[in-house]
Each structure stands twice: as C-alpha cells, then as structure tokens.
Amino acid sequence: MKKITDSFLCLGYWPSAGSFGFNTDILATNPINLSVVLGVLVFFGKGVYNRKQKILRTIRNSEELREGAIEQLEKAQARLRKVETEADRFRVNGYSEIEREKLNLINSIYTTLEQLENYKNEAIHFEQQRVINQVRQRVLQQALQGALGTLNSCLNNELHLRTVSANIGMFGTMKEKITD
Asked: Where do the TM regions start and end (predicted)?
C-alpha cells in the first residue's frame, strides 16, 4: 500500500534532480501536464479569444451600421417617392393652371374683341346717322331754297298778302280751339 505522501496530491515525491527519466505514475503526471497545457492554452488562447471577441464586435457593429444604412436608405427612398409624387402633382396642377390661364386669356381676348366690334358698330352707326342727318339738312335746305325761289318768282304782293292773312286766320282758329 502506498502512503498518502506518495500520492499526486502531495507533491513531496519527486524523482532525483540529477537524472532524467519518465515518471510512469500516470496519476501524478497527468494533472501536471494538463495544467501546463491549460496554462499555455490560456496564455496563447487569450489573444485568440480577444481577437474572436473583436471580430464578433466588429461584425455586430457592421451589422448595426448596415441596418442603420438600410433604414436611412428606406427613409430616403420614402422621401424621394413623396417628393416625386408632389412634383407630379405640382406638374399636373401647373399644367392645368397654365391651361386655365390660357383659356381665361383667350376668353378675355374674345370679350375684348366683341367689345371693340360693338364700339366699332356703334361708331359706324353714329357716323351713318350723322351723315344721314347732314344729307337731310342739305336736302331740306335745297328744297326750301327751291320752294322760296319758286314762291318768289310766282308771288306778287297781292298774293303774298292773301297767303299771310290766310295763315293768320288759321292761326287764330287754332288758338281758339286750343284754349277751349
């Protein structure tokens, strides 16, 4: 039977320092080898673990940036669609406004032309009436001059006095009828 001091828990048993050899006690050598391997792994693996964490953090950051960029792109596309629809609406409203203004302008031009035509017709009618009145006055004047000329050539003093007396008599009877 072995003593407790010979077990691997108690590190009191060591082979002599002057010789090199293999320790065949598997229970004593395995924990030492495992602790050395684990120590080396922890020492060198820490850098790998930190690098892995850094890579994962970079991937997460890039995913977040990607999601943010996608979100901004969607917002920008929504704004673009909104601006395009407003531009189309303004374009359509602008064209309809232009058409409305064009029709209003055409209508006002037609109205102005009709008014000018009416003014022209009134001016022509007024001129015609003025010319007709002038012609009438001349015709009347010529007729009166002709009648006076005929009367002067045909009338003598006695005929003239009888005509004046007859007219005065007619005037007197008309005056009595009007007063009655």
From this structure: 31-49
Residue 33 CA: distances (Å) to CA of 62, 73, 125, 146? 42, 57, 133, 163
Helix (H, G, I), strand (E, B) or coil at 9: coil
- What token pair was written down for 139? 């015709």
With the CA atoms of 31, 37, 43 and 45 taken in that order, what torsion angle do they form, in degrees rounded to the nearest 10? -120
Q: How far apart (Å, rounded) are the C-alpha atoms in residues 141 and 135?
A: 10
Q: CB-based contacts of 21: which residues, under 8 Å, 6+ apart?
A: 15
- 146-168 per-position pLDDT tens digit: 888 887 777 677 777 888 888 88
The DSSP call for residue 22 is -
> pLDDT tens, 39-97?
887 777 777 777 888 889 999 999 999 999 999 999 999 999 999 999 888 888 878 88
Q: How many CA atoms lie within 13 A of 99 on its CB side?
A: 6
